[in-house]
Amino acid sequence: MNCQKPIGVFGGGRMGAGIAHAFLLAGVETVVVEANTDTVDAARQRVERSVRRAAERSGSDSSAVTGTLDRLTVTTDPTALRHCELVIEAVPEIPDLKAEVLARIEEIATDAVLATNTSSLSVDGLAADLSRPNLFIGLHFFNPVPASNLVEIVLGAATDSAVADRARSWVDALGKTSITVSDSPGFASSRLGVCIALEAMRMLESRVASAEDIDTAMTLGYKHPVGPLRTTDIVGLDVRLAIAEHLANEVGPHFEPPRILREKVAAGDLGRKSGRGFFTW
Questions:
Q1: pLDDT tens digits for 235-275?
Q2: 91, 79, 83, 111: which is closest to 19 by C-alpha?
Q3: Which residues on adjacent β-strands are paired with residue 146?
Q4: What is the distance, to the nearest Å, from the Cα of residue 183 to the centroid of all Cα atoms in its chain?
């Protein structure tokens, strides 16, 4: 990849670790910033585990893993982002938290392109308090990042066209395909994906068919690689609930979350991360 400087990721959870992994494999020095020592250790282990598993699947030797991980820095010090050319915010989908993190990054990485990995929040809304909204863009990666081929580039009203071009070149260099969308609720991917998933939940709730058979209808009938209910388990039922509530407010009542989704989230059945959702993991 033609990165002259490191790239940064603020947040080392599942998505942040996956984004870091993708850039590391492209040969880029990558800095991950986390909140405290405990979460730093967890983030480092998450990235290392992902890199090692990928190496095992590809048959790479241990020296390749070591070389990849040598390009990784995980720290609690956000000033480590100062010399990055791109910093991607990957914290939870909480607007105030994202706005706070983005403002903090902008003060530190004054020359960097700043990106958000939000899957549904308004890019223009997040840009409202930034000093340089022209250098701000949405880069919506998909979970699991290393295996996913798509990145959704979201243009804010103030995003500079040169920044959009740079974003497309970064995605190309990762070996992924980009689509470009204007800032709108749910963008293209979340809006379509959540719409299908919510209808699948309503069908399950109405006993139209089992979760397995509803998903099989989409995987075999429509060639989706994973059915909408299993995808919801992978994404997280709590994440899907938050996105659906946001879309219901912004787009209309057809995105209103069904009772079964609210009940499962209230019961702690969040999908793969909790061991149970629409399926048992």
A1: 899 999 999 998 999 999 999 999 999 999 999 999 999 99
A2: 91
A3: none
A4: 16
The CB density around residue 281, as the number of other CB atoms within 10 Å, is 12
The pair of structure tokens assigned to 238 is 């709590």
- Any idea which residue has 């699948």 for tokens? 200
**pTM of this structure:** 0.86
Using left for φ > 0, alpha for ψ between -120 and 50, and beta otherwise, residue 230 falls in: alpha
Q: DSSP of 29-96, one letter per residue?
A: -EEEE-SSHHHHHHHHHHHHHHHHHHHHHHT--HHHHHHHHTTEEEES-GGGGTT-SEEEE---S-HH
Q: Give every CB contact of residue 61 below 8 A, 6+ residues apart in sequence.
A: 55
Residue 260 neighbours by CB distance under 10 Å:
15
Is 24 in a helix, a strand, or coil? helix
The DSSP annotation for 235-267 comes to: H-HHHHHHHHHHHHHHT-GGGPPPHHHHHHHHT
pLDDT tens digit string along 90-119?
A: 998 889 999 999 999 999 999 999 999 998
Under-50 pLDDT residues of the chain? none
Cis amide prior to 144 (ω within 30 degrees): yes
Contact 241/275 with Cβ under 8 angstroms? no
Any idea what the Cα angle at residue 191 is, between residues 171 and 256, rounded to 5°? 150
Q: Are strands 7-10 and 86-89 parallel, antiparallel or unpaired?
A: parallel
